Amino acid sequence: MSFYFIFYASRFRDRLPGYLVPEFYNITLWPRLKPNPNSNLYIFTGWSAVQFECLEATDLILIHSNKLNYTEMKDEHFVSLTSEGVSVPNIKSTWLQLQTQYLVIQLMGKLTPGQKYQLHAQFTGELADDLAGFYRSEYKEDGVTKIVATSQMHPTNARKTFPCFDEPAIKAVFHLTLIHPTGTIALSNGMEMGKKDPDDLCQTLLQTTFEATEKMSTYLLAIIVSDYAHLILSQGVSGNQIGHWFHAIKEGQGNYALNVTGPILDFFQAYYNISYPLRKSDQIALPDFYFGAMENWGLVTYRETNLLYDPETSSNSNKETTVTIIAHELAHMWFGNLVTLRWWNEVWLNEGFASYVSYLGADYAEPDWNVKDLIVLDDVQKVFAVDALVSSHPLTSKEDSINLPGQIMEQFDTISYSKGAAVLRMLSDFLSESVFKQGLSFILLWLKLFDQKQLFPPLSTELSQTFFLCTGIVSQNHFLLVPESNVTVESFGFFRYEWMIPVRWMKDGATKDIWWLLEKKGVTGPSWVLANINVTGYYRVNYDLGNWERLFSQFNTDHQVIPLINRAQLVDDAFNLASIHPNLRSAVYCSAVAAGGEAEWNFTWSQLQDATVASEANKLMLALACSNNTQLLERYLEFTLDPAKIRKQDATAVITAVANNRAGQNLTWQFVTKNWEHMFTEYGVGSFSFASLISGVTARFSTPQELQQEEHKDAGFGSAALAVDQALERTQANIKWVQRNKQDVLQWFRSQTGN
């Protein structure tokens, strides 16, 4: 076996070669909801067959597989190969290539171009609690622990569930059967076709078969076995079935999400000018889930806090989160699922687009909220802070630079989501929303008509954050948190940082026609001006001192002349360029824990254990990090290593919350430093969001000593490597800010206090 590995290593690549094209998979999975008596592990067993067509003669089959144990066939190989009506080459050897996560099948002869083959496998995997692939989630009901078998295939974990061609552009049809205990329900992407007692198995099991899926990517497959209850209604416009699934919950918590799903689906059908392509639209709330939600086609999965809303205890902010996230995921049903990105270097097209139109869908469902304005606060201003770092990156990466799972995970960051949304919003604004929609609809219809089912080559939209100077002479510059930072070719690529910038502006209160800054500099007439009306452009705006003073004067005389969003923009831009009621319950909880001692902390902890509303539990969980008692904070940090106390999906949020507490800042860095290797190797990327962890823990660093700790941290950071670079840069900027402003701030405070 080692001989074959060495001999054929040069033939392996990080990407599949493309000469084998799957048509469909037949998959049967049997998750065990009780631990194996011998190993004490939760496992699943599976049987799969994939039919593929050979496009080029080859004697090597590469298919993705990760953490699966195969039952050897009669010839002692991991798989068997068949083809109808023709002979097939014998299998010479099979083995697992760990780095690229391939199951390798070496043949004694070559496959024939144009011929179709079937690859069969039988395997066992662990139904682990790692939040990746086919995994285990747990919750308690009336003191009894319940098990849910659920899935998260995105982006590269379908291969952890069954052997497959696990790349987004390699689409196929999936025929799925689930074996599960009586008293439980099985869910997947398609409608249930029927139940029966499985052959040769005990009578306490059921076998549920689902209709064939649409042709789709492996990462969109969803598989769930639980004892959940559900709410169902029929969608009026398209007639498809809308279902929401939950474990035993207080009556009414699922109603809001159910009621807004139909209108949002209606909106997107009209927006895309394409009917919803499936017969059902299920959504399910899970106790343990890595992402906020996942757009599995026909069965969208959510964290409980993002789907459930309690009118009595949840805040308006929780309600806005629920409707916006639902809109984000349902937007993917067309843009992402029906038409899919070719490769992960274009994540921003998928996630940036869904982030942008989620505000449109939410606005349709809740027209009185002005939801569309929130994109400026929630996305544009948030991503400005990241994009001002030298360690930021363009929207699009070179395709051959993103190959391994860790590199792929790095693409799902604030730049892809929020900057992508901001740039697409700017594009829609200067084209006009109607033209933008028309172009989008044409693209989707064209790809659907010709069955392309993958996105056209990448758009060239590497717009960098720019710094806009106004009044008289207009110029653009690359805005950086630390202006003297050295931007190298390696950090951003071959970009000149000169863009054709659409500028919506007003003069003396009168809105003017859009104006384009086509070069580094342009000229406009003298007067007070306000640029970037409603912050539709992806750039900050700076003015000369005279214009700032005239704008402030306008604020004092009649502030309503300036649009509402621009009032917030002026404050945010001024603060950054100078380098310097729904949440009341959260503030009260935090203040109580901070002012109290161990008794108050323990009481809050007990309230967290008993909380039945996901949003309320989240408030209590974060409030526990507000304590000024370092022993309690140390205890709370240790809880994050015990999934029985803090769910793995919440560990990053707890650690970051403690780090944001002045009393816990040093404790948290010591804790992460001490336990990094354990967290990274024991839990993996499916549990802790390591990039968020690094960013959160180091956010307050502002001394040379803290910088030195970061620079000398020698643990492998994996998918968090970019976050480490950003943390180092942010710390350096914080140090310079303190050095530059410490005495001035101190003197001001002394003047105000009389000391």
What does this molecule look like?
- It is a single-pass type II membrane protein.
- Belongs to the peptidase M1 family.
- The record marks 417 as: Transition state stabilizer.
- This protein is α+β, with helices and mostly antiparallel strands and 755 residues long.
- Among the domains are: 1-227, Sandwich (Immunoglobulin-like); 629-753, Zincin-like fold.
- It has 21 helices and 29 strands.
- The strands form 8 sheets. Strands 1, 2, 4, 5, 8, 11, 13 and 14 form an 8-stranded mixed beta sheet that branches. Strands 16-17-18-20-19 form a 5-stranded mixed beta sheet.
- Helix 5 (347-365) crosses helix 8.
- The termini are far apart.
- 43% of the residues are buried.
- The model is unreliable at 1-11 and 452-471 (pLDDT under 50).
Give the CATH topology of the domain at 1-227.
Answer: Immunoglobulin-like
Q: Which runs of at least 5 residues are low in confidence (pLDDT < 50)?
A: 1-11, 452-471
Query: In CATH's first tier, which class of the domain at 1-227 applies?
Result: Mainly Beta
Structural class: alpha+beta
Average pLDDT value? 82
Q: What is the second-level CATH architecture of the domain at 1-227? A: Sandwich
Strand share of the residues?
Answer: 15-25%
The number of E-state strands comes to 29
Outline? globular
Radius of gyration: 27 Å
What would you give as the CATH superfamily of the domain at 1-227? tricorn interacting facor f3 domain
Distance, first to last CA: 78 Å
How many individual helices?
Answer: 21
Report helical residue fraction. 25-40%
Main sheet overview: 8 strands, mixed
Subcellular location: Membrane
Cofactor: Zn(2+)
EC number: 3.4.11.-
GO biological process, one term: peptide catabolic process
